[in-house]
Design goal:
By secondary structure, the protein is mainly alpha-helical. The longest helix is centred in the middle third of the chain and has 21 residues.
């Protein structure tokens, strides 16, 4: 039965009732967005740092150290390729390509937005440049 299910799925995927490229572009928000998504995803998929995501048996310390290594690499990618993490889809494509939740997502989401939305002007002037340039890292 399982073998037949796999064959049925393979058959259905080989002949969809729509043009895959058109559906992909529609889902992404247009041809340019698809091109950008593929570019951002390639920055993670072609990076050896993200190849060892098989961490189910790691200790808490190993997981944390690996996550910090990933954060450093993400920071480098964002700077080198001038990605805008305030642009939701850029952020989404980057972290969803990694494929699992990482502690650094707190830095890119909750930490920065808390300073922007709740900080005084003085706090924003002090902390936002440090946050944007990854001079400080917030983790959980």
């Amino acid at each position: 039965m399982a073998d037949q299910t796999a064959l049925d799925i393979r058959l259905e995927r080989s002949n969809p009732p729509f043009v895959v490229r058109e559906m992909t572009e529609f889902y992404d928000g247009g041809p340019e967005a698809t091109k950008k998504r593929k570019y951002i995803s390639s920055l993670i998929l072609n990076n050896p740092v993200f190849k060892s995501l098989e961490r189910h048996y790691w200790t808490r310390e190993e997981t944390y150290n690996f996550s910090m290594q990933c954060l450093a690499e993400v920071a480098k990618i964002i700077k080198q390729h001038k990605l805008n993490m305030d642009e939701f889809m850029d952020y989404y494509w980057l972290v969803s390509t990694i494929g699992e939740k990482m502690p650094f997502e707190l830095h890119l989401t909750m930490w920065k937005s808390s300073i922007q939305d709740q900080g005084t002007l003085e706090q924003q002037r002090k902390w936002l440049p440090l946050t944007d340039n990854f001079k400080i890292l917030s983790t959980y």
